[in-house]
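Record passed on underneath.
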Amino acid sequence: MSASGFAAVLTRMKIVTASSTDSGLSSALGVSPQTLSSWKVRDSVPYSICIELALRHGLSLDWLLLGEGPQLRGQPAQACVSEVQLLEQLRTLHPLDLQAITLAVQEKHRLRELEQQVQALNQQLHAKA
């Protein structure tokens, strides 16, 4: 684990345990301040401690260790929530409305593709100039 990654993991651990200091974190984790200090020297936290903390607080290990995804286990990422809501709304529409939306989406994709082609051509022209 890189030093910056390790520091970020410690910061997330402090957030979860509501600790503002290393001493408070060591107490919340049930380890001595010397143990926490040795983790800092090695830039490493035992995974067993991370797993125990994640289980105790319902945390996602992706969030705790990598800072990615939702903080809580089982909590869908925001994009997934939006997709689910959109799908629920689409299911309530009349088939003709769904067809019109499908055509509009296809047209939007075609326009985006054309815009990208025009942008690429413009870049080529400016590169030659």
Observations:
- The domain at 3-66 is CATH 1.10.260 (434 Repressor (Amino-terminal Domain)).
- The helical segments are 3-17, 22-29, 33-42, 47-57, 61-66, 78-91, 95-128.
- The longest helix spans residues 95-128.
